Amino acid sequence: MHVDLTAQEQALDRLFTRVEPLSGRRRGRPRALSLQAAIDEAVAVHEGTLEKNGITVTVGGEDVTVTADPGDISQVVHNLVGNSIYWLSTLPEGKERTILIETRRTPQDEVDIDVSDSGPGVREEIQEMIFDTYFSDKEDGIGLGLSIAGSVVKDFSDGDLSLVTPGPLAGATFRARLRRRVG
Q1: CB atoms within 10 A of CB 13
Q2: How far out from the chain centre does Cα 13 lie?
Q3: How deeply is 53 buried, as exposed, middle or buried, from its count of CB atoms within 10 A (0-12, 13-18, 19+)?
Q4: How far does Cα 123 stand from its chain's mean position?
Q5: SS3 state at 117
Q6: Residues 84, 97: contact at Cβ < 8 Å?
Q7: C-alpha distances in angstroms, 33 versus 5, 28, 111, 147, 149?
Q8: Alpha helices, DSSP H, located in the chain
Q9: Which residue has the higher pLDDT, 17 or 52?
Q10: Lowest CB count within 10 Å: 16, 50, 91, 142, which one?
């Protein structure tokens, strides 16, 4: 008997990826790294899903050096890109499916990572709840992705995660603002 475990494997992978920051794992030693290189590595994890769904990803802006555990940057980008992929996959066939990730240093010497998509966006009536732990607007969502990403940004850089409206694309835009270790 042949059993296709791909769906179960993907579900477990998503769950472990989201739960890992809560597991108490020891973080690696922060080191200077190219923010865009770290973002490229995090996006590469989604390569097959992006291709399967016809989604184009562009990484642009200023390549800033930050001092961080690469896993922290990866966790934030992984969650935000994963959300974009989900919502873009709900669009009707033939609609543009684009993710734009931009990085920049602010005049206050903070660093922003903006993740925008051409999806349906965040409905106004739920915008206040989307960062709450266990809140999800996805059919099979568990409500940890944005909460975990926000916690990681707060923990490693005294930053915050926010919804930006309007963004450069028609869908949702999330901004991770890093305030520490950005030099």
Answers
A1: 11
A2: 16
A3: middle
A4: 18
A5: strand
A6: no
A7: 36, 13, 13, 24, 19
A8: 6-19, 35-44, 47-52, 70-89, 145-157
A9: 52
A10: 16
User: pTM, whole model, 2 decimals?
Assistant: 0.83
What is the SS3 assignment for 55? coil
DSSP structure class, residue 22: G
According to DSSP, residue 120 is labeled: -
Residue closest to 161 by CA, chosen among 118, 132, 140: 132
Q: In sequence order, which residues have a C-beta less than 8 Å from that of residue 92 and are 6 or more positions away?
A: none
Would strands 56-61 and 98-105 be described as parallel, antiparallel, or unpaired? parallel
pLDDT tens per residue, range 127-174: 999 999 898 888 888 889 899 999 999 988 899 999 999 999 999 999
pLDDT tens digits for range 29-76:
788 999 999 999 999 999 999 999 999 999 999 999 998 888 899 999
What is the torsion angle, in degrees rounded to the nearest 10, for the CA atoms of residue 67, residue 70, residue 71 and residue 73?
A: 70
Distance between alpha carbon 16 and the CA centroid of its chain, in Å? 16
Please say whether the beta carbons of 35 and 63 come within 8 A.
yes
- Which tokens is 52 given? 């399967």
Residue 27 DSSP class: P
